[in-house]
UniProtKB/TrEMBL annotation:
Belongs to the allantoicase family. Keywords: Hydrolase, Purine metabolism. This is Probable allantoicase. It is an enzyme of class 3 (hydrolase). The gene is alc. NCBIfam families: allantoicase. One of its GO terms (biological process) is allantoin catabolic process. Transmembrane segments: none annotated. It comes from Actinomadura verrucosospora. HAMAP family: Allantoicase.
Amino acid sequence: MSDFTALPDLAVRTLGGSVTAASDESFEEKENLINPWAPAFRPETFGPKGQEYDGWETRRRREPGHDWALVRLGLPGVVRGVVIDTAWFKGNYPPHASVEACAVDGHPGDPSGAEWVEIVPKSPLQGDTVHAFPVDAERLVTHVRLNMFPDGGIARIRVHGEVVPDPAHLTGLTVDLAALENGARVVECSNMFYSSPDNMLFPGLARNQAEGWETARRREPGNDWAVVRLAAPGTIRLAEVDTTNLKFNAPAEVSLTTPDGTTLLPRTRLQPDARHRFRIETPEVSHVRVNIHPDGGLARLRLWGSLTPAAERSLAGRWEALRPGA
């Protein structure tokens, strides 16, 4: 699998993605394309429409043309790669697929009348296979259109890329500088044995332990940690450290520092299965290291503050440079 799969899936439902339209979904619903879990399958589970699949499946096409599904990304961004997964579709997968992209203003925006650009050319597919397609298109994307030729079933589409936040939602406001939806990312981590540290930055509340970050049990001296590159440089006024669902594996303590060791929040006791809020006053920072002592997991990390004037100008400039026609 290509390295781009380490980037966030901008289309996944847990980040706000939606499949808004499809040419056909006679056998299986289009919404399955962006489910966050791996495709599942139970043989000989026949419903009124035939064998049930965890994916999108169209009827057998008897006329010219091809089937398509329209996906509104949960987060706008620059796409670095697309995964088309035909898991469990063995005699009914499409032999070819392509992907187009566009960008429209507003959220949710209306892509009717938008200019579509092909980011994955018409490419051959195999049954029951994960296909990874790198994308080289330095442009803003808010919607993608998955085309399959001529018909059949696709389990998942993953649209991996870099989040590009709309500056209109950040400028002049108090915002979560550690939110993935605002452009933050975990760039270094001591351990992610059970789950990715980027999970801490997802929107909403974690529903279970798997939706947070959890490390292996530490058997050596020291502590686990993750470095968060903030959405943009700013000052932090409130830190929220959430151990929801972590009842017997929450860290004993947490601290926040800059990567060079400046203390933002000293070592502080944590409770299991609880949201903690700490008022802090920081200098301008671009990265924050969250230290958990000695190990364990965090469901969510929120760092509320404001962008610097220079950061606001930088975000606005990038947004404009990546828009179509720039």
